[in-house]
């Protein structure tokens, strides 16, 4: 898996993607491509994106950042040919998807981390230091 930074692309914002009909996975009616389900969680340190993409390898994914747009994509081709006696059976499949998210200004794009384990691609998007909550401060009364 590689994280690449590119320039000059336009995609919907994180919130627009959150309310789109394909948010929970399923098939895009226009392209007939399968979209993985995505969970987005925010915590005090940042955001976590989890994509349900079972049966793949970490090298099957490309993660790119371009102008504060995070794009996650995959394209896998498989082919199997079996020859026995008087017949030949050849099977093949093609699977691809592409998801894009506009990063909030609070995310530090240079520190994004990605891991693939047990069919879940998990990205950690830490917040910039200035966006982290400030600790409570006791003021002494004089």
TrEMBL record:
Lineage: Bacteria, Pseudomonadati, Bacteroidota, Flavobacteriia, Flavobacteriales
Protein name: Hsp20/alpha crystallin family protein
InterPro entries named in the record: A-crystallin/Hsp20_dom, HSP20-like_chaperone, Small_HSP
Source organism superkingdom: Bacteria
Protein family (similarity comment): Belongs to the small heat shock protein (HSP20) family.
Domain SHSP residues, every copy: 29-142
